[in-house]
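HUMAN: I'm a chemist; might I ask for a sequence paired with its structure tokens?

ASSISTANT:
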Amino acid sequence: MIPTKLLAFRDETRRTFIPKYYSGVGQVVFITVVSLSVIGWSAASIRSPALWELGVAIPTFLFANGVEYVMHRWPMHHKWGGLFFQRHTLIHHRFYTHEHMRCESTRDFKTVMFPPYALVFFLGMIAAPVAVALYFAISSNVGLVFGAVAMSYFLSYEWLHLAYHLDPDGPLGRIPGLAVLRRHHTLHHNPTEMKRANFNITFPVFDWIAGTTR
């Protein structure tokens, strides 16, 4: 049973934060199609890669995991983080407590996922410029590997985070390993832990490095 106070907050958030035209399914399709298109094009464009060029995937993954950790631990959980803090702490964490993590409808996806323009920003202002710089500074394959892995990480972030807030007994809930990651994220939604533990939303690599895994 969802507490009356939480129900009231959810109703108010849906009224003021979620536009009538919003489609949760539409957003999932949009970010999936764009991301997979970039990933597919990048991977298909790689030509006769050396092993070390493919190995760039590892530091790219670690870099993305570190950025996820830093952004979540600090800007998203401190007032100086501005819009990040507002959307994450004041909306997302109040909408979903550790005892009530599920979306009630696809329209609630807006309280979980980044806004669509975040994908445009990430692709156009971060991933693409870095990929292009690596493409010309080191090799074309390095730039393409970076682009493919960076977009894969962004998409995995969105997919996994959304999966944590869906029915754990549904089809996605039975994916091997997902229950472990869901528990990791659910504990972070405990108000006593959210500023102290489990900041990685995808894979808790930097949580383990920084000693913030619970």
